[in-house]
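[User]
If only I could read backbone structure tokens as easily as an amino acid sequence. I have put the entry right below:
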Amino acid sequence: MAAAAATERCFLWPLRVYYEDTDAGGVVYYANYLRFMERARTEWLRALGHEQDRIAEERGVLFVVRGASLEYRRPARFNDRLEVLSQIGQHSRTSLTFQQTVRLAGPQGAMLCEGTVRVVCVERGRWRPRPIPKDILAELTVDR
């Protein structure tokens, strides 16, 4: 499987569907698309050199999901190779809105699911909104 790739304000993360990801009908269980999207956002931060546990410990902030909306287009099945494309749609001082697409791998890969996920930066332990660290915000939102 190819390594993750970052381009202009987007991140592409490859994955494969495992048997545990599927339901009794042999297709990816609908809630697992949220897991795939979560992993892609985490891997994007990691590719930029930011581990979420270190962000929490060193900067005292966490990223939490405030809302999510998904549209399902086609099913993925066991052993399919997929890609999750993540882009920043909007952002403010305290939140990021990700536009994410799960598709079959490859340049002509069919879209399977698309979603919008709003993430808020909060103070660890108090759960109150805090500004996103400036360096992280800049890396996620600036053209490369």
